[in-house]
Design a protein that fits this description.
alpha+beta; four-stranded antiparallel sheet; 4 strands
Length: 159
């Protein structure tokens, strides 16, 4: 007579274990990928701010100062120029043809609110509570540390 052959197949438990392992590995990968993206965007921000700083210093050497800001700030001595606005550092276009903007550029209107945009602020000597030297504040909001990162650039004057 004919001998019955045993068929081999995966059990439902084995299949479920494999699916769970794959799901766990996918979750770990997605979490790591999100962190890598944030760090990469922050690296772009650091490089962009460095390029803007160099361009501002070059602009100052040609013009004897950098433009003052009045686009935001209410009753303050100046205002913020944000990469989320249409006039973002437009005065630098002859020096820097493609003005860098934040990789996310979330459309904020106040940099202290923690949104994702670059900001530029030039205040004159002794303006309100500002220091007694003209200065530029240039910065961004870090996604990794969740803090505003600003650099001060001493300038001759705000125009």
């Amino acid at each position: 007579m004919w001998a019955k052959q045993k068929q081999s197949a995966f059990t439902i438990v084995e299949l479920l274990v494999v699916i769970v392992v794959i799901a766990v590995l996918a979750a770990i990968t997605i979490t790591a990928y999100t962190g890598i993206q944030k760090r990469a965007r922050d690296s772009v921000r650091v490089q962009d701010i460095s390029n803007i700083k160099k361009s501002l210093l070059l602009y100052q050497s040609y013009n004897g100062g950098v433009p003052a800001t009045t686009t935001f700030g209410g009753n303050g001595p100046g205002g913020w120029n944000l990469s989320s606005s249409g006039t973002w550092l437009s005065f630098l276009s002859p020096i820097l043809p493609k003005i860098p903007v934040d990789p996310v550029n979330s459309g904020i209107t106040d940099p202290s609110a923690g949104g994702l945009a670059y900001y530029y602020y030039c205040y004159n000597t002794g303006s309100g509570p500002m220091p007694a030297t003209p200065n530029v504040s240039l910065g961004y909001h870090s996604e990794v540390s969740n803090q505003n990162i600003a650099i001060g650039i001493p300038v001759e004057r705000c125009l």
